User: Fold these one by one.
Assistant:
Number 1:
Amino acid sequence: MDLIFLGPPGAGKGTQAKAIIDKFGIPQISTGDIIRAAIRDGSELGKEFKSYTDKGALVPDELVVRMVQDRLAKDDCKPGFLLDGFPRTLAQAEALDELLKGMGRGLDHVLLLDVADEVLVDRITGRRSDPETGRVYHIKFNPPPADVADRCIQRSDDTEEVLKKRLDEYHAKTAPLIPYYEKAGLLRNIDGTGTPEEIRERIFKVFA
Ligand code: AMP
């Protein structure tokens, strides 16, 4: 099952990914996670990435495409994959099409989690994660347990100011992927508002 998870920052892609990857036994490939890991490593490439993520700007296509190409070649992607946060530009989508064609495979579904900008601001600015487990919480909607709360951290790009730029990037560069995949007959529109359980049910209807 070759899947893309499309949607603005804070739409709930990360939260919903777990159930999907468990169902199909496929890996979640989050370019944002790979980029953050490179930044933590402190490599030259990581430093370059940070200069973009700090501003809420997109990392150049060539770098991200190469990263995804290397990741898709790994054995665990044989049964499929869930791409989360990639592609984010038309150039990335076209590069992915070529890449998959070369591997003799193709996308099954592009899941679009649809959420209004006003809701995203609330979701993102309240987002906190536990660096030890990687679990993501929300100070209002899904608070961390008391013994975890103190060590939870906020992503440096989850501030209102950087989020505004990330949303601008989404509308300008990523939203054009919606008609692109619609034309290809791959787009599955999912209402991303409601409880995580309600949203999961809507997603699973796509696979029914
Ligand atoms: P995310 O965790 O998906 O919100 O990504 C965090 C940041 O990493 C983004 O704001 C971008 O700076 C960068 N990034 C992640 N995925 C991509 C991508 N496919 N293309 C360009 N930049 C990306």
Note: The chain has ten helices and seven strands.
Number 2:
Amino acid sequence: MSRIAYVNGSYVPTADAFVHINDRGFQFADGVYEGITVRRKQMIDLEPHLDRLWRSMRELKMDAPMARGPMRIVLRELIRRNRISDGFLYLQVTRGEAVRDHAFPEFSIPSFVATCRRLNLAGVRARATGGIAVSTQPDIRWGRCDVKSTSLLPNILAKQAAREAGGFEAVLVDNDGYVTEGSSTNMWIVTHNGVLKTRSTEDNILAGITRARVKSIAKKLQIQVEEESFSVNEALSAQEMFLTSSTSCAMPIVELDGQKIGDGTPGPVAKRLVEAYFDFMDD
Ligand code: PMP
């Protein structure tokens, strides 16, 4: 069965899904996106994802391609047409097609594409059992990382460098030696007092939807959360480390730049949060 994409008003086989070469998404990465996990045909945290998408569009003075109601319908239909049970929905809005000029066009119709593919969540859970290795990379991104923009060149270069260093994810580090976030994830540590630390969303990072969810799960479990930056050295001497994102859920980190975190196996707090996050998805 060929996969079906949604492209500017039509559901089409992926092989026939095209956008114009003058689309500003293609020309300038003048676009925003969301990635939503689908668990047993249900979209996880759909409304916070739509809130963030609308915020990103507002921040870039971009018009919405449609209202939220119809967008929900398109996304549900895409899951149905692709017969997805566990999957990953990708949606992207760009400023649309216009003659190439850096300044905003006087008139353009926003472009909206969405795809849905299978995501092996059992595999994600299995990976969480062993934990992952990560490597630090300098954070060379811009000053508006709160916007979920498709301009991801620094992120993909960091991820690739991490992969070449044998890591699963890049831990981005600012000029002062503090961890900002991952190339496509949010970073957390567990201190020796059992407190969770993760950088504040006021501090030029993306407000991860999984981050917010894990924060509220932690509160329910009476685990203290401090939204405060931590340095690479703090991470190296932390009790535990983990990351969060829609596709990785909560994922224990057992090695940073070749050095063990804790005893080099997923710690009890991270393991509890992985369980609790899957329970939340299955609720
Ligand atoms: N930070 C960055 C830079 C990201 O790209 C992502 C995922 N898109 C995240 C964090 C995690 O966000 P979420 O939990 O909403 O997937």
Note: The longest strand covers residues 31-39.
